[in-house]
Amino acid sequence: MSERLADWTKGEQAITYQTCAACGHVQYFHRAFCAACGTADPREARASGKGRVYATSLVCRAATPETRAHVPYNILLVDCAEGFRMMAHGDNGLAIGDAVTAGFKPFAGKLVPFFTKEA
After folding, report:
1. CB neighbours (10 Å) of residue 76?
2. How many CB atoms lie within 10 A of CB 90?
3. Both 36 and 83 in a single domain?
4. Are residues 58 and 109 in the same domain?
5. Per-residue pLDDT tens for 65-96?
6. Both 34 and 63 in a single domain?
7. Is the domain of 41 the same as that of 83?
8. Which residues pair with residue 56 across a beta bridge?
């Protein structure tokens, strides 16, 4: 497997995804193989950070002591421009269908993708 691009999971302010050279499948969850056809070593690329809100859920009760300071916070499913869907944090006022852009904010001691409404 080729070396992974650094992304937010490694402290870099970037979102990466994979595409399969054999079938064209796009996937966000990093794997050593294509989830659609099984071909090894999908290519990695950096996402633009643009997308559209597919679903939103406002969390009003802290799951852990570390998240208590952030309540209420919004968890989103975002359909990204490159063709994958990801879960991320976002502004509390976002609604299904809103066009959004990713930035990064600290949350419970980690830097996470945070989507805001596109201007």
Report:
1. 23
2. 24
3. no
4. yes
5. 989 989 999 999 999 999 999 999 999 999 99
6. no
7. no
8. 76
